[in-house]
Predict the 3D structure of the following.
Amino acid sequence: MKFKKTLLQGVLIKRYKRFFVDIKYKSKILVAHCPNTGSMLGLLKKCNKVWFSKSKDPKRKLKYTLEIIEINNKKIGVNTLIANKIVLDALYNKKIISLTKFNNIKSEVKFSDKTRFDFLISNSKDKCFLEVKNVTMSRKNQVAEFPDSPTSRGVRHLNELKLAVKKGFKAYILYLVQRSDCTSFKIADDIDQDYKFALDDAKKFGVKVLCYDCKLSNEEIKLNSKIKQI
């Protein structure tokens, strides 16, 4: 997924009220939108380098959006709103090996009164729901983790994927690690044990798990390589 324009670089001052960040850019302090509802554990150290985009939409109150934070010379994509765009590009370009047989792709498809899944992908034989989760946290060397805060919504999505399998659909959950310094992925059960239980149960019912990392620059973020789940 290419950004419309090369991202601007600044320095993180602070995050507050969940959806706001102050960024020092040149000699100014800018207020930007933080498009991430998680805790962003380990990413919010003052003076970290950040990259952000600028919107031309005159109706937007906040013209700037935080996109990337740098930790130890590694870029981490924090905008959860673009995770689906990254995956959509990968689906169209057949970059996700397990899903190359699906040629028809629909986004934001309603499954029940409670839930829309990120994608419905299909071919002449099978229909498959695909849910995407954005991953930013790494507390141990080269290990990505999800979630970074308790997520009842995430538990609900797993239960709904399980129900989809019962109704005859295929079902996948894809953990998109928006960083390039991790070789494996695990569930942070010390943060949300209910989520770990829900995923284990969903897997027993046939929900498949995929984990991929990304390549990041100030011009684009794209899905890279499959990584193992531990």
Observations:
- DSSP finds three helices and 16 strands in the chain.
